[in-house]
Amino acid sequence: QVHLVESGGGVVQPGTSLRLSCAASGFTFSTVGMHWVRQAPGKGLDWVAVISYDGNNKYYADSVKGRFTISRDNAKKMLFLQMNSLTTEDTAVYFCARWSPLLPLDYWGQGTLVTVSS
Amino acid sequence: EFVLTQSPDTLSLSPGERATLSCRASQSVGSNYLGWYQQKLGQAPRLLIYGASTRATGVPDRFSGSGSGTDFTLTISRLEPEDFAVYYCQRYGASPYIFGQGTRLEIK
Question: Which chain A residues have a beta carbon less than 8 Å from that of B86?
Fold first, then answer.
């Protein structure tokens, strides 16, 4: 079955960088888009970024544009989120989610917590 | 700027009652690319509805979605204890893939 596992979260200081990973299994990774969505403690869902199945199209929320980069390795069935210039506002659980054609986000990982604090 | 506004913020009902949750878009949602998710505490969101009205695989038929254009509704016909959670709508047809702020459905 579909399985998504995020990793790479942790506690970092403002201004630093972090790279999140999402390992996919149970489906043909190279045929679907992928999203990152975050959720600050006690808050709602906040869309972060999306990448097309082939990696050629990427879109970002205004709040992370220029600081975050989404990428993928289809051979390794991995999704990444490179986060630079982190601020306390980026503290959240980060979820990766599958995006099948004509569907919204139909499978989600359990998330990885990123805490930005001095 | 595209915005999704959900109402109410909190809905207090009893098991067996009917729940009606609203999601209003600031602009028309093209091709009805509107989805609904359920999230329980400490869990990842679960897809319930896509295309405004189509139930995702495995979703009980007490959940139904309706609406078009800018006004959408999620209805739960008879609340079960496991339905008390937070519900989000999302536009997924184009970037930005905005979520509504959520409606918390709590036990009265």
Answer: 44
